[in-house]
Write a structure and sequence with these properties.
- The protein is an all-alpha fold.
- The protein has one domain.
- It is 69% helix and 1% strand.
- It contains eleven helices and two strands.
- Strands 1-2 form a two-stranded antiparallel sheet.
- Helix 8 packs parallel to helix 10.
């Protein structure tokens, strides 16, 4: 059976970015073992690629095949987050310890870490799926609307993804109760149905120039993870009920989407996307500096790699801008 994969470099970029951002850049998969036990590190990262990378490829291909936009990608990314944290590694139901920490108490009820579940679902939708797809689009705009795989390749990728979910599921304890499993399965399926049904232009940028400057876009990009840090701080002292913290996450992320819809225009949209992505990554750079000394030594090397990639991307966008007449490359899909 012949398997068709057309643009190999974009595929590789998305396959690696999807796990590298949420795992290596946050310290969830420590990079330190690379220097004293490279085999163990590469094996661990290979499973990350098989989970995150295939998920991002499938969602990206779905969006292109059905002419969907960022609303569908975010919704499908949220379903991915539920599948990973709920069905694969079971952190939604973890009673204590890493990685849930205090969120196994703050926001926990009926065997479910509800606040953790909400935060991680948002995180995976934005950082594990949407941001890698956005960066890949910026690097390779010529294949943004091109199908990358034939049916056989899609089937193979889906098989790898499902196999990896099952491996994690069988390897990790503290599974969901039958009721919780059915609840989250229903939510994930509903999100996928919504991703299919919502219009492709739901989160499309308005026509005209952007009314947000570079620093405003950077700050907007950092807001979601900043809100999560605030929730983690709340968990240490319980200053407000957990439902207030959950509402805070909804409000911050909703406000960012509203701001982008009202203020970002189609003119020089690539630059708006770049600065927003810079904000999303920049707050993780700050996070890395904070945790480098006492949690994940060596993570600053990962930060340095991503800083270099951002500078390279910035130079690429500038070179592209000099070759293309103003407005010719405007992309209406925010």
């Amino acid at each position: 059976m012949r398997i068709l994969i057309r643009p190999r470099l974009p595929v590789l970029a998305l396959l690696l970015l999807a796990p590298a951002i949420p795992e290596l850049l946050t310290g969830s998969t420590p990079v330190t073992p690379l220097f004293y036990n490279p085999f163990a590190f590469l094996l661990s990262f290979a499973f990350d690629v098989a989970l995150y990378g295939t998920g991002a490829l499938l969602i990206r291909e779905f969006a292109v095949a059905f002419d969907k936009g960022w609303a569908s990608i975010l919704l499908a990314g949220a379903a991915y987050g539920i599948a990973e944290e709920g069905f694969a590694v079971h952190t939604f139901f973890e009673p204590s310890g890493n990685p849930v920490g205090l969120l196994a108490v703050y926001g926990h009820a009926f065997g479910v870490n509800w606040l953790w579940a909400l935060g991680l679902t948002i995180f995976h939708a934005t950082y594990s799926i949407s941001l890698p797809i956005l960066l890949t689009q910026l690097w390779f705009p010529g294949v943004r609307k091109v199908r990358w795989f034939d049916g056989a390749a899609i089937a193979l990728i889906a098989l790898v993804y499902l196999f990896t979910v099952v491996v994690f599921d069988l390897s990790v304890g503290h599974r969901a109760s039958p009721g919780a499993f059915l609840l989250f399965l229903g939510i994930a399926l509903a999100l996928l149905v919504l991703a299919y049904r919502v219009p492709g232009n739901l989160l499309r940028a308005r026509a005209g120039p952007s009314k947000l400057g570079p620093w405003a876009l950077v700050l907007a990009g950092s807001a979601s993870f900043l809100a999560w840090i605030v929730v983690l701080v709340m968990a240490s002292g319980h200053p407000v009920p957990a439902w207030v913290a959950a509402l805070f996450l909804f409000v911050v992320n909703g406000a960012v989407l509203f701001l982008l819809l009202r203020r970002v225009g189609t003119e020089r949209l690539e630059w708006s996307k770049f600065y927003f992505a810079t904000g999303m990554l920049g707050i993780l750079f700050v996070w890395d500096v904070v945790i480098a000394e006492f949690m994940v030594p060596g993570i600053v090397l990962v930060t340095a790699v991503f800083v270099y990639l951002l500078f390279r991307l910035r130079a690429t966008l500038r070179a592209r801008e000099t070759r293309v007449p103003l407005g010719a490359s405007a992309d209406a899909a925010l």
